[in-house]
Amino acid sequence: MDPETSQEVRREEYQDISVEDCIHSISTSSLLTEDRLRKRLQFYFMNPIEKWIARRRIPYKFIIQLIKIVLVTLQLSLYSHTRYQHVNYTFDNRVSFCHLFLRGWDPTREINSYPPTAGPLAVYVIEDFYSTIDFAVEGYANVGKAIGTYSYTNEDNSMPDMVFCLYNYKKGDIYGFNESYVFNPEIVETCSNITYDKKDPFKAETYFQNQDIKFSSLVKAVLKFSLKTVNFKSTGRITPPNCYQFDIMITFDNEDHDGQLAISLETQPTRLNCKGDVEYVIEDEIDSILRSLLNYIIISLCAVSLILCVRAIWRAIQLMNVTKEYFLTTFNKPLSTSDRWKFFNLWFLMIIVNDILIIIGSSIQQQIERDEFVSDQWNVCSVFLGTGSLLVWFGVLRYLGFFKTYNVVILTLQKAFPQVVRFLICAVLIYAGFTFCGWLVLGPYHLKFKSLSTTSECLFSLINGDDMFATFSILGTKSELLWWFSRVYLYTFISLYIYIILSLFISVIMDAYETIKEYYEKGFPKSDLLIFIGETNLDDVSNGLYRTRSTDSLGLGLGGLFKYFFCCNRFNKEYRVVPVPKNSETS
Questions:
Q1: Distance separating alpha carbons of residues 513 and 510, to the nearest angstrom
Q2: Do 60 and 68 form a contact (C-beta atoms < 8 A)?
Q3: Ramachandran region of residue 191, left (φ > 0), alpha (ψ -120 to 50) or beta?
Q4: What is each CA distance from 171 to 181, 209, 245, in whole angstroms?
Q5: Rounded distance, CA 291 to CA 369, Å?
Q6: Do 483 and 386 form a contact (C-beta atoms < 8 A)?
Q7: Mean pLDDT, 10 residues at a time, over the chain (587 residues)?
Q8: What is the DSSP letter of 500?
Q9: What's the count of helices (H) and strands (E) in the chain, helices before strands?
Q10: Which residues pair with 183 in a beta bridge?
Q11: Which among 410, 367, 366, 360 has a CA at the least distance from the CA of 386?
């Protein structure tokens, strides 16, 4: 055989061996890719306990959530006690100011009762209007006689002037005898200081005689002044004394021009930085440090939880993209919308939200405790901490859902949610119609229907069977038409919602519950994704299969999966199935 013929034969043998090796390599690569992806998906949908068994990794997110529940609950308990004392202190001071500065104030007005036991505090003659101002000015001038330790806002404790503001229509003359008037709706504000030297009794009628107060054009009058005080240990041994300034505003409301000048007193507490010397014992200093330490630990823990949850969601999105491309390449069909949503863990989104709320609330609380806020931020802090703790406790349901007995509730709500939303849309439309109708027709005559919000609250209470007889009997009108209308209106609403709509609502929930029970007995329906994943054998989980290097993050090393996903589509090439030629055997 000549050299050229020998070289050609060797070339053909080499080419044949290369084709067979390539075909074998392609088939093996395809099988390995499918097996790796399946194991990665199986591992992704495991619960934290199964993941720990599979790879012996500590479930960090699970442990962090448990610790967070304990610490947030402890923080909330301490803060609730502090806030209760603060709100109670400011409310009691407002009651004291009402007794000191409002003429005719009665203790029965301090109790919120239903129906109200007393009418509005108001004056009806001009003399009483001036007498009420006299009473407030005299009380302000003699505030040193009060039991409460109130001081004036000047540094030398001298009495500053009170401010009296009148809000009048630019023109407002009424001539009732011939049914005529002169009216300009523009409101003009006029403010003046009240200077009182305490030598003679104050007479408002004489003091304001040059201002010519006309009640026909008066919209409202406001009397403003401020006082300072110190609260000693209102919250116990942990918190030092607090200094406050109360901005007091007495309002004479005449907007309705109905012959009744309603009087109200409102206070705005502002927290001040105390300048006095304060002595602490060692226990107090330790308690203060521990509370600050608790806030910082919770902020740090929530920050770590936030990062881990964001990381988990990002990895889930990447895994979903890989799976979606694999289905398109291998099965020539897209991943269904329901299967895509399986990658989005809404529990993680809820944890992210509660972490953000708790971080903001804890930061505000720390600033409140360190006297870095001069204004009243208690309510803002309460909203953040309260909503955050609510979502933290809701998050416990995620871990209870890993147990079959407790997962029934979650699956039932998940199954019934679309039907419940559609049902509620129809129910809310009917509810809105009854709300607007009741507010329009019964509002002027019925205490519970006087505004749109109280009408909605009344109807919602009636749905739950609350205070039905009082709602029927309170209607105060001599109109026979309205009396009959109210009866037909209330009977129709109660019968429709209690006997029909609520029953249908319960049936929707029960239908979903029965469906979930049937699934537990006969098996849950499987989508294309679940069929591809297959069943996860507990023996495979515990025998160390998921702890091998080849299956760690789809055989690419921890983090390698996403490194390949980002870098030049190398990860996609690893999982792309290359079809084997049909004539491979004859090649």
A1: 5
A2: no
A3: beta
A4: 9, 19, 38
A5: 9
A6: no
A7: 49 43 42 71 75 73 86 87 82 92 87 74 91 93 90 89 92 84 88 85 86 87 93 61 88 90 90 68 63 89 91 87 83 80 83 92 84 66 89 80 71 84 91 94 88 92 86 79 90 92 89 83 72 65 51 41 42 43 40
A8: I
A9: 19, 6
A10: 172
A11: 360
The residue among 217, 218, 219, 239 whose CA lies nearest residue 230 is: 239
Separation CA 559–CA 552 (nearest Å)? 9
For the chain, how many residues are written? Answer: 587
In angstroms, the CA 204 to CA 192 distance is: 13
Q: Give the count of beta carbons closer than 10 Å to the beta carbon of residue 378.
A: 20
SS (H, E, C) 352-385: HHHHHHHHHHHHHHHHHHCCCCCCCCHHHHHHHH
Check if the beta carbon of residue 428 is closer than 8 Å to that of residue 454: no
Give the other-Cβ count within 10 Å of 556's Cβ.
Answer: 20
In 204-273, the DSSP E strands lie at 218-231, 242-253, 261-272
Tokens for 58, please give them: 């500590």
- The answer to whether 250 touches 227, Cβ cutoff 8 Å, is no
Taking the CA atoms of the chain, what radius of gyration do you get in angstroms?
Answer: 37
